[in-house]
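note to self: the first set is below, dont mix up w the second
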Amino acid sequence: ADILKLNFRPSQYSQALLIPPITLMLQLIETSMTTINNILTTLNSLNLKIDPILLLEQYVPYINWKQLIQKSEKYNLENSIDSEIGAAIGAEANTNMGM
């Protein structure tokens, strides 16, 4: 606008955003997590205990870690319940076959 001596700025009326491809975002997350793992390994070898979730939240902000942890705990609970039910059904079937 300045070079062409326009009386207006096009940026006042439109905006262009560049969104990186998903593969680049995934590579960035993977690299960040690998780096954090290396940092945690080094700190643990020095007997410095650090909360890994804190590091992940700070350095990989693209992931909602609280939500991921909640869903992970729910998934693990459901799997353990399914396993216990399956084991109970299997034990009952074996008991009935022995009669």
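second set (the one i keep forgetting abt)
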Amino acid sequence: LGAMRAQERPLTPGDIDSLLGSRGELSRREVAELVSNILTDAEEEIERTALEAVRAAVALEAGEAAYQKSRADSLNARNSRLAAERSGWRVCALAEAALIGAGLLLFGLTR
């Protein structure tokens, strides 16, 4: 029984008879061993099911975290591009203001 996996269907009286053999009575030790084996199998199945559920939850969370990281990286790249564009426009505006100022100065000096 220790090597048997939990089944999807409950044991029938025929299954129980085949496991116990043709004897009609079991000793206390045999009953205790049988119950112990059943409990051990149940614990193993519960643990296996719990581990599968945890693995599924971790995989789901990992996928969500990867998506959020990708989205954050994309937004950071966009912000960097916008900052570079603003910096470029600022330099152009300052250069244009300097040219206009120089032109006004030159115009004022020539008049």
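remember for set 2: DSSP finds two helices and no strands in the chain.
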